[in-house]
Design brief:
Pfam families: ATP-synt. By secondary structure, this protein is α/β, with parallel strands linked by helices. 60% of the residues lie in helices and 12% in strands. Helix 1 packs antiparallel against helix 6.
């Protein structure tokens, strides 16, 4: 009986130590997700504004840019998978990887070869464990993305897109990331980056996106020095800002998922501590009852012997 009580007390101490860790991680994630949300809010208007500018430039000019031209029969597609460097965030990374696997299946059904680009150690570990090949990988800083890293990824994807598929290039570029809606809602999403679709893909309905044109009047544009030069400058900047915004939304989603996961772990630890405390008390009470019974039994035996 005493050994059982010691075991319960040891488990209580172990769970209490785990609870302290999960509680600390929950508080850290809660403090960092605030800054991550602020960065998402700060960069989203710029991404939407440059997207509108790109749409207007492409729709009001007769220039066909290489980044907006679609191949009649695409043969290869690049896929950028945005995950995290660390775990303990619930199903955050696994949901993105599951969405990427579904995208690969759809692309294979369309007779397209897939060239994966990985962001985050979870994606790299997923591919290395299964001994799959990938074109490039970036690790580190997934919970606080930098614009320089987004520009590096965008430039490499553009380079692969400008290379003919017969020479190892790609005809399409897709990104799989987690879009941040709120602290309780984050959803994995697939977005085609190249060739650029000249549409309002900011999450609003067409009526909301084109509310400025409800009067039926469309703005007139003049391009200096010409439309092609403007598109050459705007399109790469658009792609970098879009990838950067996706990385920021993924970082905010990661921190929100980690906060929820650590809060759930802390609550479970509290329940385990209560359970083990109750079991220890029951074992202690049984031990005391047994000792009393032995004392009473011994006293009765002595009385009968006299």
């Amino acid at each position: 009986m005493g050994a059982q009580i010691r075991e319960y007390r040891q488990r209580i101490r172990s769970v209490s130590s785990i609870k302290k860790i999960t509680r600390a991680m929950e508080l850290m994630a809660a403090s960092r997700v605030v800054k991550a949300r602020q960065r998402v809010v700060a960069t989203t208007p710029y991404a939407e504004a440059i997207q509108r500018a790109l749409s207007e430039c492409a729709s009001n000019s007769n220039v066909e840019h290489i980044l907006t031209q679609e191949v009649e029969v695409p043969a290869r597609a690049a896929m950028l998978v945005v995950t995290s460097d660390r775990g303990l965030a619930g199903a955050y990374a696994s949901s993105v990887l599951k969405e990427s696997e579904q995208l690969i299946e759809r692309l294979h059904q369309e007779q397209k070869e897939v060239s994966p680009y990985l962001y985050g150690r979870k994606a790299v570990g997923f591919y290395k464990f299964r001994r799959r090949e990938f074109a490039a990988a970036w690790e580190g800083g997934t919970d606080a993305p930098q614009y320089e890293r987004a520009a590096e990824i965008a430039d490499q994807l553009v380079e692969a897109f400008l290379t003919p598929a017969s020479e190892g290039g790609v005809d399409e570029v897709h990104i799989v990331y987690t879009r941040f809606y709120s602290m309780v809602r984050q959803e994995p999403r697939v977005l085609r980056l190249l060739p650029i679709q000249v549409v309002k893909d900011d999450g609003n309905t067409p009526a909301e996106a084109d509310s400025r044109h409800q009067d039926g009047l469309n703005p007139l544009y003049e391009f200096e020095p010409n439309a092609e030069t403007v598109l050459d400058a705007v399109l790469p900047q658009y792609l970098r800002s879009r990838i950067y915004n996706c990385l920021l939304q993924a970082a905010a989603s990661e921190l929100a998922a980690r906060q929820r996961a650590m809060k759930s772990a802390t609550d479970n630890a509290e329940e385990l501590i209560k359970t083990y405390t109750r079991l220890a008390n029951q074992a202690r009470q049984a031990e005391i009852t047994q000792e009393i019974s032995e004392i009473v039994g011994g006293a009765n035996a002595l009385a009968e012997a006299k």
